[in-house]
Amino acid sequence: MSERRLPPVTQVGMLSLALILAGGIYLSSHIPNHVSLTPAVILLCASALLLAGNLASLARVQGFAWTRFFEIARWALIAYLIIAGMIEYAFLRNNLSGGPLVVLTLSLVVFAVHVPVLIAFTVARFAES
Amino acid sequence: MAEAHPPAMERPEFQIVPRAGLPIVAFVLVLLIVGIAVDELWPLTFLHVVGGAAWTIIDLFLGFVLGPIIGRMSIPARVEFTTRLMPKMVLIMPTAVTVTLAAGWQLATKLGNTQTSYALHGWIVASYIVVGIMAVIALGLLEPANIAVLVEMKKPRPNPEVIERLMKRFIYTAGATGLMQVATFVIMTKLASA
Predict the structure, then answer these.
(1) Per the domain annotation, does A1 fall within a domain?
(2) pLDDT band at B2, cuts 50/70/90?
(3) Any idea which of A9-23, A65-79, B159-173 has the lowest mean pLDDT?
(4) Which residues from chain B sit within 8 angstroms of residue A79, using beta carbons?
(5) pLDDT at B9 over 80
(6) Does residue A64 form part of some domain?
(7) Mutation to test the A interface, candidates B27, B33, B101, B136, most A Cβ within 10 Å
(8) Which residue of A2, A111, B150, B181 pairs with B56 in a disulfide if CB–CB is 3.0 to 4.6 A?
(9) What pLDDT digit, counting tens, does each position of B66-100 carry?
(10) Nearest CB to A28; choose among B102, B114, B161
(11) Which residue range forms the structural domain that includes residue B74?
(12) Is B116's CB within 8 Å of A90's CB?
């Protein structure tokens, strides 16, 4: 099976997910104490940058199967928005508010976008463009 | 990239996302929303234990029992088995994981186990880390391979090499998360017996 070179989207995506999870673990492991949001914000920004970098590097690939990519990404995005919504609901139900809520909500946004990108990339890389 | 003309492959008709299962998923998610809203001990424990049991058993069974069996099957048998198993996994696993984690978080909050003052707080944090590692593996490798193998099989001429490669990835990552589930068993039994 011959294969063209593609950017390391999966590896970068997994690193991005690991960073937001680390931020979430950092915040949730200090409940109910007040902790600095700085480490979680840094992890979230790094994760978002990796997401942007992933999309940018993928956009430069010649002849990528974009039709298949968006076809899969659209449905996966709906599914992961529902999952992210369930998690957000659990946060709100437990009266999470202020800075931690903002950081965790933005982390969920990165999660809900990056996972569909990973699924759609894995499918589209084997599709004929 | 896939070969230009791979050999034709016999496979049964299937839906990548089985529509008949969607109402069941919706029902389970409604149960979860109601369970969190009422915030009672029994429904939360029920959802967490049942979801967690499904998640751990499927991971272990797939990684260590079904995986090696699938690997020894003939190609046509493997294709037929895969087309019947994998669409169900698309619905079952994300639902089981979401229910387990959301109900578990609510349960731990209700019992005060998420507080730093809880005697076994270190074990709780360890469970976050184990789940975090499993989530990265499942979301980054397992779930994309699951969807990709189904999309490949839907093609008029699926490429057996692509399917083989994606199925290996699926089974190996299921095995890896299965191993992590052993750590989950250790942590959860410790917390339950405290």
Answers:
(1) no
(2) very low
(3) B159-173
(4) 94
(5) no
(6) yes
(7) B136
(8) B181
(9) 888 887 888 788 888 888 888 999 899 999 999 99
(10) B114
(11) 19-192
(12) no
Identify residues of B whose CB sits under 8 angstroms from chain A CBs.
1-3, 17, 29, 32-33, 36-37, 39, 94, 98, 101-102, 105-106, 109, 114-116, 121, 124-125, 128-129, 132, 135-137, 139-141, 143-145, 147-148, 151-152, 159, 161-162, 165-166
Domain tally for chain B? Answer: 1
The alpha carbon of residue B47 and the mean position of all alpha carbons in its chain are separated, in whole angstroms, by 16
User: Could you give the count of Cα atoms lying within 13 Å of B88 in the half-sphere of its Cβ?
Assistant: 7
Q: Is the pTM of this model over 0.95?
A: no
Query: Residue A30 domain-assigned?
Result: yes
Query: pLDDT class for B23, splitting at 50, 70, 90?
Result: very high
Q: Is residue A25 less than 8 Å (CB to CB) from chain B?
A: yes
To the nearest whole Å, the CA of A79 is away from the closest chain B CA by 9
CB contact under 8 A, A122 and B147: yes
State CA A106 to chain mean position distance: 10
Q: Provide the residue range defining the domain that includes A79.
A: 9-124
Alpha carbon of B61: minimum distance to chain A alpha carbons (Å): 24
